[in-house]
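sorry to bug you again but im stuck and you know this stuff better than me. what follows is a protein written twice so to speak, once as letters and once as structure tokens for the fold. mainly i need to know what kind of three dimensional shape the backbone takes. anything you notice is useful, everything is just below:
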Amino acid sequence: MQQRPLAVTMGDPAGIGPEIIAKTWLSRKACKTPPFIVFGDSAYFSKAVPVKEIKTPEEGMKFFGEALPIFPVSCAYPPKVTIPEIENAPSVVEAIRSAVQWCLEGKASAVVTAPISKDILAQKGFAFPGHTEYLAHLCGSVGKETMMLACPELRVVLATVHVSIRKALKQLTQERIITTARKTNQALKQDFGFSHPRIAIAALNPHAGENGRMGEEEQAFIIPAVKILQEEGIQVQGPYPPDTLFTPEMRKKYDVALCMYHDQGLIPLKTLGMEKGVNITLGLPIIRTSPDHGTAFDIACDLENLAQSKASAESFYAALIEAEKIRKQRSKIVL
């Protein structure tokens, strides 16, 4: 099968997305970066690197070596670093939509999204909590999406995502934990090559509830969920107290930790591997990854002054490599 490029979205152009994309393209030869096409504002990117507007994946593959291939999605106003422009929000959303459409049509092998500002998009009427939920909507997979975060030291998946702690407690159910574990087990086999994935279930309460003395959720539905999954032949253990689940010795005993809420999983992962963290959306018909950091408006650098950039492109590069690895795994190509 002919190689297809990765589809990269520009993210919020006032943040570090454009500069880490440009820096990654500039290091393409030394790092053997897989070919990608950017869905974004070509005039802005041209401040830092040579660009080539393209309409087809074949053009993207052809020109990647000499210019940054861009499927043009123009901003309403010229981007100003550190100062997000609400009127550019529709262009940010359109870049995501177009990139996903390319993947659904088989023109691109995966989507790699640069960071967005959820607040800025919401102010312009964006109805989704974040990338993950919007991608599920575009793919017709609402309710099937699961967020995985990965770095060299740890993988975590989340039973609840972009909601308050109060709402997370309401959303947590036995069925939700079972469904998340099933999807995780399938993804680790399909996308990561594990024959018998080991899943550690995090408890919700201190000391895993101490038999109900510090919380009833473990006894009420987390332990029953673990038992059902074990009866299905899925290798799950727990629930484990979160304050010891992420120690070096414990991490040797599992391939992924299933966490009950957002920060329970992201605090240890970002502490261990912020620079190389990758967000991977499971449960979609397409492959999607992204760097595991935000827009970093406070350190963003204008593309005209790329040499002064303080932003690390390491996580973005890791997201490209992870997407390519998953593509090869799905294609049964041994790395």
Summary: The chain has 14 helices and twelve strands. The longest helix spans residues 174-190.
